[in-house]
Amino acid sequence: MTGFYITKGKNSNKKVLKYAYGSNSEVVKQSMAEFGRLLEEKTNGKLTVEYYPDGQLGAEREFIEMVQTGVIDFTKVAGAALESFAELYSIFGLPYLFDSEEHFYKVLDNKEIMDKFYMSTENLGFVGLTYYDSGQRSFYTKGRPITKPEDLKGMKIRVIQSETAIKMISFMGGSPVPMANSETYTSLQQGILDGAESNEFALTTARHGEVVQYYSYDEHTRVPDIVIMSKNTLDRLSDREKKAVYEAAVESTIYQKAKWKSAVAEAKQQMQDEFGVKINYIEDKSEFRNLILPMHDEFKQNEATKDIYEKIRKIGEER
After folding, report:
1. How many CB atoms lie within 10 A of CB 84?
2. Most distant CA pair in the chain: distance in Å?
3. Per-residue pLDDT for 12 more than 80?
4. Could you read off the pLDDT of 126-155 as tens digits, one per residue?
């Protein structure tokens, strides 16, 4: 399998670009489809997108590598999955980096800040195009809810394959288990895991609500999804086509954000009504925050992340 191919028509040639992704909420799938619709519209059918959904071609790491080598043209992955390719992305996995959803949006909509992320992988063969909101991430567990950090003691918690996520669980007192999302359901079912951490859609779209009983809102991270594109593919497009790609990407983000909040509310209701998951709201998150402060110190002192860390925190203070 290789990247985009050209089909010959009566009047013109058409470039068909390949977009692969894993399991996602319906609103994110709709947003990726909207990107393709917009791209075709903006190029009068010269560029079209062919989708390979729901992990048909592998998992997030494999998608990134396929974009990197030009096997596929686009993918959408969690920002934390990119940290092993560019250290800068590790900051998105830092717990309590953002003070609120408003703070998160102010940072992610800041072109000066985000272009540093998007272009940090250019020399590796791919670039970022835009982000999608992936909401907050909290703990969901079997047996008992998480109300304070001590509840995590002895619990095996699935995390995304990210050093930052692994450190977070360790600092909070749990036992981190890095694992692909596709393996999480069975591992929870078989008792290999005691819980995991993600947004509400993990319990509905991925149906993890069938094998856990509690969802505890500690809201430790807000990790954006990032849409990436093969640099080789981008370089093979005309200036007009490149412009259409970037415009379609940003407009698909606007589309996604408009639908996100209502989709989360529906997922939360479904968690309770269909799966019987008990929701636990943690009002005072200070104990969790205090435990991970050494991680913030690391980012403040790291040459690769300290400038961007300070800019992100400053935006939070300006509210």
Report:
1. 14
2. 68
3. no
4. 999 999 999 999 999 999 999 999 999 999
> Tokens 């947004």 — which residue?
199
| Contact yes or no for 93/221 (Cβ under 8 A) | yes
* Helices marked H in the chain: 26-42, 60-69, 101-108, 111-118, 163-172, 184-189, 201-204, 231-235, 239-273, 286-291, 293-301, 306-317
CA distance 309 to 87: 12
Task: Output the pLDDT for position 80.
Answer: 87
Worst-scoring range by mean pLDDT, 66-75, 103-112, 158-167?
158-167
Tell the residue number behind the tokens 């809201």, with chain if given: 219
Q: What distance in Å separates the CA atoms of residue 167 and residue 187, rounded to the nearest whole number? A: 21
Alpha-carbon separation of residue 61 from 21, 65, 178 (angstroms): 11, 6, 13
Measured CA to CA, the distance from residue 26 to residue 11 in angstroms comes to: 36
Contacts for 128 with CB less than 8 Å, ≥ 6 apart: 114, 117, 118, 119, 121, 226, 227, 228, 229
Do strands 137-141 and 214-221 pair parallel, antiparallel, or not at all (unpaired)?
antiparallel
Q: 178 and 162 in contact (C-beta within 8 Å)?
A: yes
Q: What is the dihedral of CA 138, 144, 149, 152, to 10 degrees?
A: -90
Q: For residue 182, what are its two tokens? A: 């596709």
Q: Which two tokens stand for residue 120?
A: 């940090």
Integer Cα distance of 31 and 251 in angstroms: 9
Q: Are 214 and 205 within 8 A, CB to CB?
A: no
φ, ψ dihedrals at 125, nearest 5°:
105, 5
Cα-based torsion angle of the residue sequence 57, 60, 61, 67 in order, rounded to the nearest 10 degrees: 70
- 6 in Cβ contact with 13 (< 8 Å): yes
DSSP H/E element including 219? strand 214-221
Return the residue matching tokens 């990790």. 223
3-state secondary structure of 11: coil
